[in-house]
Every structure is written in C-alpha cells, then in structure tokens.
Amino acid sequence: MVSVNGPAEEDGTLAIQIGTQLSALERRVTEANTPGNLDGLLAYHVLNGAIPGFAWNVDPAAGSWMRENEGRLDPPALAVLGYGITHFPALASPAVVRRLREGLHRLGQRNPFPGDRLSFLYEPRLLLGICLAVMTARGDVPEFEGWLQDALTSPQYQPADRFQGLIQQHALALLADRPARITDVATMNEPVELATARWMIATSTGTLIDPDTDARVLQQRIIRALLHSDTERLAVPRAALLYRAASDVLYSSIDQLILSRSHLSRVLRRFEAAMLRWRWDRDELRHPIRWEISSEREVQDILWIILRSVFDDVKDEETLPKVGHSSYRADFGLPQLGILIEAKYAYKGADFKEIERQVMVDAVGYLNKTDLYKEIVVFIYDHSSSVERHDLTRQALMGVSGITDVVIVSRPGMLPAEIPRSARTPRKRASASPS
User: Beta-strand (E) ranges in 11-158?
Assistant: First the structure.
C-alpha cells in the first residue's frame, strides 16, 4: 500500500491532501493550455487522459500559432510541430511535414554545443518535442537521427542535474527503441526526478534495477513528494510530470489503498461459502469430475486463486531472510500490506496441537529479520471438521506476537471424509524453476 507516516489514511486526511495537491497541479497545467504553447504541449504529451474531464486546447492548428509562425524552422517551432503531428494527425499535411523535415535537416548542420550552453539539448520541452519530430519523420532524415544520438551521447553533453539526465536517457531510449536502466532510486529526493523516473517506466523507456524494491520506494517517495511540494511554484512541465506520476501510483495501487488486513480476513472467511460450487460428481456420471483437497498443497492452490483475484502484489512462497542456520519461506506474502499468510492442513483433530507448535516456531523466524512484513495471518483447513478444537487453537495462536488473525475452515460436505492413504502425507509445492 502507498503509505505516509501517520494516521492520515484512517480519517481521510491523506485523501483530502492528495486531492488538494492534484487540483493545484491541474491549475498549473491550465495556465499553459493554449494552442501551440510548448509547456502545454509537453503537459499534453505527459498527461493526455490522466486528468479526468480536462478540456485540452493545445493543438497548434486550433489557434493562430501556425499562421504567426509560418516559415519558422528554429528548435522551438520544430518542437511544437513534433508534438503537434504526433498527437494531432490532422496537422500533418504534406506541406507541414516537408517543413518539419527541412527544419530537422538544417538543425543537423549546426554545432549542437554552442559556447553559451543554450542548446535545445538542455531544454526538456524542446528536446522531447524534437525527438517526437524525429519519430514522425523517421526514415526521411536518418542523418539527423544519428546526429541527435551522437550529441546526446557525446562527452560534451553534461546534464546540469539528475532531471536533465533522466530526460537524456528517455530521449535516447526513444531513438534507440531500448529502455534505459534507472539507477539510484533510493537516493532520489527531488519530486521532478521521482516523477520523471515513474513516467519513463510507464512509457517503457526506463526499467528499474530491482523492480520490487525500487518500485515500492518510488511509489512512497512520489506520494510524499506530492504532499510536500509547493505546487503553486512548480513550472508547468514539472507539474505535469508530478501529476502523471502521482496519478499512476494511485490508480495502480487503488485496491491497496482501500484494502487492509480486515479485508483480507473477510476474503479468507468466505472460503467455506465459496466451496458451494466445488466439483465432486456422483458415481453414476459417465465421466465424473472430482476436485480433491487431500493435502496442504491443494489448499495453497485454492488460496492462490482467491488472493490473486484480489491483491495484485501477492507473492507465492515468499522467501524470507535466514535466521541463524535456518531458512524460512512463508506460503504467501502481501508486501504492500506487510502481511504473510501461512496455510496449514489438519487431517484429524489431533493435528491441531502439532499445527500450533509449528506456527509458533515459524512465526519467530518469519518476522525476525524483515522490515517488509509486520503481521502473519494463519489459515487452517480442517479436513476432520473438528470444530470443537477451532476456538482453542485460534486463541493459542492469537497470543503469539506478530499473528494478527487465524482463520479456520472445515471440509465441505460434498468431499468424502476418508482420504486415500497415498495422499495423507503432507506435500509442499515445488519451488518454481526459471523457464
């Protein structure tokens, strides 16, 4: 779950703060929402569809920009045409496309590093617009595409900060059709750096070194950055990137923002009711279908289907840090909720005592060396339907530090009480091997 320190999630304060900041960012974007406005075009390129109900008005052909800038072939004009033709195909008349190609050809004859460092290479909205122009004219001006790649990889190109460096990587990834590797996520603090990294991931121009850890860190830092940004002072391109990043994080994890351990417990407690449609055909059918639940393995398989249909981040057989000489592996992990789930199978009433012992031992190791997981939920499938033992086992396990819920369910009536002798030995699932 995207979390910020403090109890804000519980009383709605966090949602109000996020909404307020997003509204402020939207107002900043609105200021540049005029035909041919470079800030507005970059915002459209980043945000198109991300702001619900936003009425965009940046099409260069919608106002007087085309008429007032007829004949201009400098980098700002080429960038406007790059954004325009990419997002507004009606703009791409033969005359405009010829003009764009001519401008790119001329630009490719210049020194990309003038002495005053005012090169368009250092201006994100210009660089991205011209990259889009190259993509539009790809094949017609191959010499310019090579010129631009050479300039961006030249030792002379020295980004002023990490934001410029990320935009450089994004541009090169577009030209080479190969995502850049985004490093040092843990050291990113500036909102625009975090937002640009998230945007690159969303547009497939960037990949994380450690997708699980880095994505989680990135999500948390983006929301904190949103909450603490002075949105009224952000430049429009930066406001657009932060809005896109924050909305991506919120939409991709909206279920985790809503779901909690209480929801997990309710889902698991519906196990028995969901078994109404479990398949166990009568003997007289020609080809009877019978879904056995004869070991812990089958219970884990059912739980996977249940959990994966609700939680996007569920981890199957979550391997945990070693404690001393012992290795630990929980059946399932929900990292964004910080919860481990351990499944057990009771063949007979007497098994509950051994299950209690196993869980008590494992609980110590499960949470000992991990900062990611804070709670354990225990799920026990009782084949023997020894309901008189459930409460005592639940009370015993709920007294163990770290265990926050114990769900015990009984075998559905359509399954036979007798288990084939070959299935009575508990079987653990084999670890998935690389394909």
Answer: none
In which order are the strands placed within the sheet that holds 326-334? 315-323, 326-334, 339-346, 375-382, 403-410
pLDDT digits (tens, 9 = 90+) for 328-359: 678 899 887 889 999 999 999 999 999 999 99
Cα–Cα distance list, 399 to 257, 264, 356 (Å): 28, 20, 11
Output the pTM of the full model. 0.60
User: For residue 204, with 0-12 CB atoms within 10 Å meaning exposed, 13-18 middle and 19 or more buried, which class applies?
Assistant: exposed
Alpha carbons within 13 A on the beta-carbon side of 132: 24
Residue 398: its H or E element:
helix 390-398
Calpha distance 411→264 (Å, rounded): 21
**Per residue in 221-252, pLDDT tens?**
898 889 989 988 899 999 999 999 998 888 76
What is d(CA 255, CA 177) in angstroms, rounded to the nearest whole number? 33
Give the separation between CA 140 and CA 98, rounded to whole angstroms.
10
Contact 341, 303 (CB under 8 A): yes
